[in-house]
Design brief:
Keywords: ATP synthesis, Cell membrane, Hydrogen ion transport, Ion transport, Membrane, Transport. It contains 19 helices and no strands. It is mainly α and 358 residues long. The longest helix is centred in the middle third of the chain and has 27 residues.
């Protein structure tokens, strides 16, 4: 995708039109029954199944060059970028700006993916398979990242972006400790700071800006909760405040640091919060989860559930659009996990543990 256009300040947001289009797209997403069918298929069967869905165009265009899980992954990434390009194409005014700002999450994803690839010594082509060209970075910037021969080179190449300062500081820690967490967290922090920059912290709750902020605050809360759960389960002697992202409303730094040592306390804190009623079922899953992967899958499901709740309460707002973005991401992540799992010889039950199913 090329750099985003600047929305005209004189144009009003066209919520009804965009949400009508989004509802149509949402209706075509795979459901849980589709995932349960897919986990029992081989990779060639998965490819044939996808050829008969709305992925047909991408599967046919790429089928001559790729096969197996590679074909599935390229088709997924191309389809995802196409759908999010469409969102921007349809949108006007403040709605366009809200969506464009949020889609920069894929710039963050791509930066982290390139850094992880370099750290693991992966081939550039394998790293490129995992990139999602749906953010603001154009092809030139992404090609520059892929061409980098070291993590330091990646950090230097991003000096003029929103990630520049945070990554430069984190790189010093990375050099000392040789772990990626400081770099990945720096990328996340830079993204969420940009996301909330210039937005009022306490806007009118039912206003367009208020709903956008409410959704973003929830995502920051869930990101902080995810980091806290990881630290709590890891047993590492790490200061949790180093991984705290500002902008949420559920935790402050001190509270999060205290709860990191107590998984039950973390879940109880969320249950007693403004998210409690909406997330009751997901929180029960969090309590029942036996390992970190299950915790994180339940957390992803909880954020989806919260986004859907906001969408139902405020059907003519940015919330249905953001909820659709999360749902589309979930579809792509689930299909990718199934294709990779089947190619690796995993059984259906093993793969289902990797999926976000509501």
């Amino acid at each position: 995708m090329s750099s985003y256009r600047t929305a005209s300040g004189g144009r009003s947001s066209n919520y009804e039109y965009v949400i009508a289009r989004v509802r149509s797209r949402r209706a075509s997403l795979f459901d849980d029954d589709d995932y349960r069918k897919l986990v029992r298929m081989g990779t060639s069967e998965i490819a044939r199944f996808m050829e008969e869905t709305e992925y047909e165009t991408e599967m046919n265009a790429l089928g001559a060059r790729y096969g197996g899980s590679d074909l599935v992954e390229y088709a997924l990434n191309r389809n995802l970028a196409k759908h999010f390009d469409d969102l921007l194409e349809w949108s006007e005014g403040a709605l366009y700006n809200y969506i464009a700002r949020y889609l920069r999450k894929f710039d963050a994803w791509n930066v982290k993916t390139v850094i992880r690839g370099l750290y693991a010594g992966a081939e550039s082509a394998d790293v490129e398979d995992d990139l999602i060209r749906a953010g603001e970075f154009g092809d030139k910037r992404i090609d520059q990242l892929l061409a980098a021969s070291s993590i330091e080179e990646v950090v230097e190449s991003l000096d003029d972006t929103i990630f520049g300062d945070s990554l430069a500081d984190a790189y010093e820690v990375y050099e000392e400790q040789d772990v990626l967490v400081p770099l990945e967290n720096a990328v996340d922090r830079a993204f969420y700071e940009m996301l909330l920059d210039g937005l009022p912290s306490n806007p009118e709750p039912d206003s367009a800006t208020g709903l956008y902020v409410q959704f973003l605050q929830a995502e920051v809360d869930f990101r902080n909760l995810r980091n806290a759960l990881r630290l709590a389960r890891s047993g590492a002697e790490t200061d949790p405040t180093e991984y705290y992202i500002e902008g949420g409303k559920l935790f402050d730094e001190q509270t999060l640091a205290q709860l990191t040592a107590n998984v039950e306390g973390l879940v109880a804190a969320v249950r007693d919060s403004t998210y409690g009623d909406d997330l009751d079922a997901a929180l029960s899953a969090l309590e029942d989860a036996g390992n970190l992967v299950e915790f994180e899958r339940a957390l992803d499901a909880a954020l989806l559930e919260y986004a859907d709740t906001l969408s139902n309460r405020y059907p003519l707002s940015v919330c249905p659009v953001l909820s659709y973005i999360l749902a589309k991401e979930r579809e792509v992540d689930n299909i990718r996990a199934i294709a990779r799992g089947r190619e690796a010889g995993l059984g259906p039950d093993e793969i289902e543990q990797e999926l976000v199913i509501l």
